[in-house]
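Ticket #4471: structure export looks truncated?
Reporter: QA, pipeline team
Priority: medium

Steps to reproduce: submit the single chain below to the structure queue and open the exported record.
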Amino acid sequence: SGASWRTFVALGDGELQEGSNWEAIMFAGHKQLSNLTAIVDRNRLQQGARTEDTNRLEPLADHHVEPLRAACARDTEIWDIYPISMLGEHFDKAMEEFHATTSWVRFAVLWRDQVIGMSSYINPDTRNHVVEIGGTYIEPSARGAAGVNTRMKRLMIEHAFAQGYTRIEFRVDARNLRSQSAVRKLGAMHE
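Actual output as written to the record:
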C-alpha cells in the first residue's frame, strides 16, 4: 500500500482453473494490495485442450432442464441411493422441489458444452463461514477417468474459499461408495 508502482500479471483463461492462482488472488485481497492488476487473455486454451472441452458451472436455468432430464435418465440405478429421484416421472416433481428451496444455490454442470449433471451450494452460512456442497449428479459418461467431478468440486471449493467460507461440508450416503471415494480424493476428512 502506498507504492508508486503497479504490477501487471497476464493470465490465460485456462490458468484460472489452477488453485495457486486463486490463492494468490485471495492473498492479494487479504493484504489489501491496490497496485496489482491482473489481465486475463481469453484465448480459450489450456494445457492439453480448449477450455470449452473441459467442464464449467452455470447457474441452473430453464434452458438446462431438458438436457438435465436426459442426463439423469442415463443412470437408472443411482437414484435408489439418492434422497430424491430425478428419473422418469419423478423428474418434474424433483425440479419443482429444487426450485422451491431458497437455501440452495444450484448449478448445471457442463462438459464439452453439454449438460451432464448438477451440483449445489447448500445452506450457505455467511455468519459461521460454512457451506455444504451437494445435490450432485454426474452422468456415467463423465465419471471417473474424465475427471469432471474432481474439477467441478475444486472450482466450487475454491470459489467458496474466495467468498470467505472456511468450512466446506459434504454429506454422502453410506451406500454411495463412489461418491465417498471422490470426496476423499479432494482431501476431505470424515467426521
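Status: closed, not a bug. The export was complete when the record was re-opened. Leaving a note from the reviewer for reference: The chain has a mean pLDDT of 83.
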